[in-house]
Amino acid sequence: MTLDTRRLRRSLLHLVLAVIAALYLSPLLYMFSTSFKTREAAGATEPQWIPDPPSLDAYRELLGSADSPIMTWFVNSLAAATGHAALVLVTAAPAAYALARLRFRGRNTIFATVVATLFVPPVVLLIPNFLIVNELAWVDSLPAVIVPAAAGAFGVFFLRQFFVTLPGELEEAAELDGCNRWQIFTTIALPLARPALVTLFLLSFLTNWNDFLWPIFVLLSPESLTLPSGLGNFQSANSIRYDLLMAGAVIASLPVIVLYLVAQRWVIEGISRSGLKG
Prior knowledge:
Shape: flat
Distance between the termini: 31 Å
CATH architecture: Orthogonal Bundle
Mean pLDDT: 85
Helix content: over 70%
Number of domains: 1
CATH topology: MetI-like fold
Largest sheet: none
């Protein structure tokens, strides 16, 4: 294959990738553009990619609305998603390390049982979880959306796939130096698993941030709502105000986009080393 042929193939590949990227980004760009349109321009039948004239009226009306405290919802979602993701790491990391590196009777059976719970539809657990949350007096509070799903099977499965790849020689050397299992876990395994931990934190954060159904069940007052559930109510009241709806969608999307851009390198490394491919 000549040099010119390789360059042509590479250029065609880049062109195809650019077209695919444009297709995926176009809804996001149109959402962002519509949020800066006037009410009349946002409701026009002809698509308009560039706002003419650009306007901040949608953001002013959205952020200044007393009936829809969107910044309160934003803070609630940020606190809930961060707390949930941190709790997932606390519960999943020790369990995953034990199932990957310790030798005990029934280990494979326990791991198979944990993985089997991944096939249980989450909607089946709505009523049992609500009854538990109600008994704990957590209804209409943030712990109700932080705690219940924090001990899920996915985090254990994901981190176990990473821990099984660690060289056994590291643990043997640490044991010769007098380290116990907990010290090996905290000083060797966890630092080496940083890409997987960051990836799991991000995935757990996004799952909680985007959760719509469960918060509707357990968060009752307008001030306690998270962003997805609050925007759902807001959409019902403003179904024809596309400028307001797109402004709310932009506010909900920005933390996710920023978080992914910051953690992109860790996410790619964590997924590749954990053996999960999409």
